[in-house]
């Protein structure tokens, strides 16, 4: 029995590791985003990989153990506000009130970016995130389905979904869970909705794009579910943390 123990432990470790790094393969495609261009031309999204689930408390704890400079007590104010991991009991203890399999929240853009980079990954771009998020169980683009948008809007009204475990929402066309119904998520270029002009490549910013005048560049003014996501992103700064904002990682395909 003893000689089989190392093999057994190895298999268990390998199984857990495979769950941690499991990603979905996203094929190359195009779509017209809610924001980004007054010409309403399709945006091309190159093939990439995306984490099937948002990063959990347990995964983030392992990251902090390896890189303790990102722990709550050592976090510098320029990289995260005072609410950073405020729901945790201490630097390296997310506490019994927080599920290990629940998404980590109250994490700033800086630390989300750092986490992904330490995994050999990156944060998804906003176009990548929206491209994956527009899929339901069977369709790549379900944005015109009333039931799909109603599902998203009904989630916005539900309290404390961030406390639920990952993987409890529907599995979409790409095999990705929790794009809707669990937490809001950081993207690499979350504040690009502020960019004005003919495309997001312009360098001039227009802070009035948030809220009311934010609908100026919308391709579908009736798409309130998506509008609320863009408005929320537009209100953020990289050091901000909130209890319903988490993240997941992405990776380029070679």
Automatic annotation (TrEMBL):
Listed SUPFAM superfamilies: C-type lectin-like
Organism: Flavobacterium rhamnosiphilum
Domain Sulfatase-modifying factor enzyme-like: 36-251
GO molecular function, one term: formylglycine-generating oxidase activity
Signal peptide: none
Annotated protein name in UniProt: Formylglycine-generating enzyme family protein
